[in-house]
Amino acid sequence: MANSLVVGVGDCKVTGDPLAELVTYALGSCIAVAIWDPVTRVSGLLHFMLPDSGVDRNGSGKEHPFRYADTGTPLLFRGAYQQGAEKRRLVVRLAGGAAVVNDNGVFNIGKRNYAALRRILWKAGVMVHAEDVGGSVSRTVRLEAGSGRMIIRASGEPERELRVVSQPERASCVGGGLCQYA
Questions:
Q1: Which of 158 and 62 is assigned the larger pLDDT?
Q2: Is 172 inside any structural domain?
Q3: Residue 179 and residue 133: Cα distance in Å, rounded?
Q4: What is the pLDDT of residues 90-148, one digit of tens each?
Q5: Which pLDDT belongs to residue 35?
Q6: Which of 21, 39, 123, 178 allows an S-S link to 2, with CB 3.0 to 4.6 Å?
Q7: Ramachandran angles phi, psi of 76, nearest 5°
Q8: Is residue 179 annotated as a catalytic residue, yes or no?
Q9: Per the residue annotation, which of 12, 30, 173, 179 is the catalytic one?
Q10: Long-range contacts of 117-123 (CB under 8 A, 24+ apart)
Q11: How much is the mean pLDDT over the chain?
């Protein structure tokens, strides 16, 4: 039986346990960043809420760094490297970034989260192997540490695997995402 590690909103978990399963719920405009090293089976999952820690007037995200793309993403990768993962082997997948609240496009938090994350990953030279972003439904994500399988369940839909495609960066929209941000 899998050791289930729940990643809350504004949280992150990294594990080297191949029996672990990382899971996060209620990804609306938030984005999950899932990483997996197929050699060491080190896995990590970040569930961030906002693109930029600069909105945190009390400390630039220092108290809650996983709430923000700009502070949480580097910490996710560092945590995986500390457990033996290597950047060149990492399989990176994204999910979330939906427009679940109809604000007539005023805030566009999902789009802003996605744009900020892609910019961070691009600057770091990290390729995205698959993504399921956009749309208007919340998602649940499970990452199996042993196999690297990432399972997504959107509201009102059956579970499906977000498969890695052979060419990174051409993976947009795998698994039914709308890809309106690419």
A1: 158
A2: no
A3: 6
A4: 999 999 999 877 656 557 899 999 999 999 999 999 999 999 999 989 999 999 999 99
A5: 98
A6: 21
A7: -60, -50
A8: no
A9: 30
A10: 117/31, 117/33, 117/48, 117/51, 117/69, 117/73, 120/69, 120/70, 120/73, 120/74, 121/73, 121/92
A11: 87
> Would 75 be classed as within a structural domain?
yes
Number of domains observed in the structure of the chain: 1
Contacts of 11 (CB under 8 A, 6+ apart): 24, 46, 47, 66
Amino acid at 140: T
Q: Are strands 43-48 and 31-36 parallel, antiparallel or unpaired?
A: antiparallel
Domain CATH for 42: 3.30.1330.200
- The answer to whether 7 and 45 have CB atoms below 8 angstroms apart is yes
pLDDT at 166: 58
Q: Is residue 76 in some structural domain?
A: yes
Instruction: Tell me, yes or no, whether 134 lies in a domain.
Output: yes
Other C-beta atoms within 10 Å of 6: how many? 13
Domain ranges, residue 146: 3-161
